[in-house]
Amino acid sequence: MDSSAAHLEYARLDDDFATLDALDALELDMPALQARANDLFALATAWTERHDAILAATPAASLGVVEARLRRIGIRWGMTPGVRMTGRIPALPDDFNAA
Fold this sequence. Notes:
Elements: H1 3-14, H2 17-36, H3 40-57, H4 63-76
């Protein structure tokens, strides 16, 4: 998918305020969701319930964009497989200014 197609997908999602609100609410509630969970199973269950409810309410035209955002939220909070970066990545190599 080229960048213009991705932009059109996001523009289509901008018209779906309910889905955007649900995604924003989930992202903001993740720290509390994690704090309320007694164990990992409870956290996974709470995540799955919210995830599935958002997908069920998403129009078919916006499904790809919403799934991608849910995946990014899930990776950030350790709920879905993916590469998490917890260290710093330097913008330039250490020897860049030595030349």
